[in-house]
Amino acid sequence: MSLQETLSQVVKRHEELSALMSGSSSIDAAEFTKMSKEYSDLSPVVEAIHELNNARDEMKECALLMEDADSDSEMKELASTEFHELKKTIPDLERKVQLMLLPKDEADEKNAIVEIRAGTGGDEAALFAADLYRMYQRYAERMGWRFEMIDLNEIGIGGFKEVSAMITGKNVFARFKYESGVHRVQRVPATESGGRIHTSAATVAVLPEAEDVDIKIEAKDLRIDTYRSQGAGGQHVNTTDSAVRITHIPSGVVTQCQENKSQHKNKEQAMKMMRAKLYDHQRQQLDAERAADRKNQVGSGDRSERIRTYNFPQGRISDHRINLTLYRLDEVLQGDLDEVIDALISEDQAQKLAELN
Question: Model pTM?
Answer without folding.
Answer: 0.69
